[in-house]
Amino acid sequence: MSRLMIIGCGGVASVAVHKCCQNSQVFSEIMIASRTKSKCDALKEKLQGKTETKITTAQVDADNVEELTELIRSYQPDAVLNLALPYQDLTIMDACLNAGVDYIDTANYEPEDTDDPQWREIYEERCKKEGFTAYFDYSWQWAYKEKYEKAGLTALLGTGFDPGVTSVFAAYAQKHYFDQIDTIDILDCNGGDHGYPFATNFNPEINLREVSANGSYWENGHWVETEPMEIKREYDFPQVGKKDMYLLHHEEIESLAKNIPGVKRIRFFMTFGQSYLTHMKCLENVGMLSTSPVEFNGQEIVPIQFLRKLLPDPATLGPRTVGKTNIGCIFHGTKDGKEKTIYIYNVCDHQECYREVESQAVSYTTGVPAMIGAMMVVTGQWKKPGVFNVEEFDPDPYMEALNRWGLPWTVCEDPETVE
Ligand code: NDP
């Protein structure tokens, strides 16, 4: 029996809230707190009467540490699950420290304003030192380690699908299948079709920033950076079929490079159709992906935020998206002196997700692990003072929970590999 505060009420939060309500033995009470309270109330309205979980709602500005601290103190949750945007990670971590409550999220910190000179100075330094130019990285949140240790609190970072489930797959492979993992290829395939010429499956601003950035991978102890979409491969995904996929920088590479001992190479690939890439290139070329404000008719607007207003809300894609996702990892390494390769993956059907929780599979595959991560912390199965990535805990209870709560996985011991 526990009490969870969920911050944010978008596509991912909606799934996590549905799942907490299905799991009321663990989550007896939840609070949904977000910028737009009417969205929280509408979700509560939909679920109340169908669950034992007691739901309350609140308005909160998660950029404001004092306001957040006050709300957390007044509700007294066992943990806070951050499903707002990566921009709010640090303010929510600060508020959790102030209020003495555990913290959980699904995406690492990224600043909203990448022109902020103070942030930029640290960023430029990091680019030189680490060798990758992504706007997001773990250094900001890992820096809270000592504070969380001293406070006796747990911060669990990155419990979505990727990062999240993919990282738990790595810990599971390490524990049960390998003495030494040499390479990891993380493959994220969305074989779904929503019927729009162009839309993103989760927050457009975060999604487009990620996809239009340089790619990178980890090899022999350092980062190798590529041009955006420079490395392309084709893969025949179980239950989806052949798709083109492109190498991207992705946040779990950073933590897995640190936490999987001796790993030599980690790459991340995501599938994109040609139409998506052409739309994105065009938007980028005309400046619509820019995060720097421009003046228009006497008003300051941020192009990518304006674009977000024009694009379909990812939360509305559910009813019209058909097809499946397939996300997983190919591990190569040695066991008892012999080389081996395994592929652990989950397949998720967009329409089945919609029938269950009225969301498409991209929100579903993130919201379910968000609930599971919160469950690991509030039940004490994954609880120790400090700041941790998911692969630093025992993967077994999490893997069992994936099977139970809607994301069953398969281990293939003879997979197609990626060149
Ligand atoms: P949405 O944009 O759909 O939802 C974000 C929610 O946060 C909205 O309800 C928004 O409020 C709220 N919010 C934004 N700013 C504030 C603020 N200052 N104060 C309070 N609430 C705020 O995003 P998604 O649901 O698609 O994504 C949620 C998170 O999940 C993101 O961090 C994303 O990066 C992460 N993610 C992780 C994945 C993984 O596999 N690890 C995959 C996909 C997403 P409002 O309703 O008013 O706009």
From TrEMBL:
<dbReference type="Pfam" id="PF03435">
    <property type="entry name" value="Sacchrp_dh_NADP"/>
</dbReference>
<dbReference type="InterPro" id="IPR036291">
    <property type="entry name" value="NAD(P)-bd_dom_sf"/>
</dbReference>
<feature type="domain" description="Saccharopine dehydrogenase NADP binding">
    <location>
        <begin position="5"/>
        <end position="156"/>
    </location>
</feature>
<protein>
    <submittedName>
        <fullName>Saccharopine dehydrogenase family protein</fullName>
    </submittedName>
</protein>
<feature type="domain" description="Saccharopine dehydrogenase-like C-terminal">
    <location>
        <begin position="160"/>
        <end position="406"/>
    </location>
</feature>
<dbReference type="Pfam" id="PF16653">
    <property type="entry name" value="Sacchrp_dh_C"/>
</dbReference>
<dbReference type="InterPro" id="IPR032095">
    <property type="entry name" value="Sacchrp_dh-like_C"/>
</dbReference>
<dbReference type="InterPro" id="IPR005097">
    <property type="entry name" value="Sacchrp_dh_NADP-bd"/>
</dbReference>
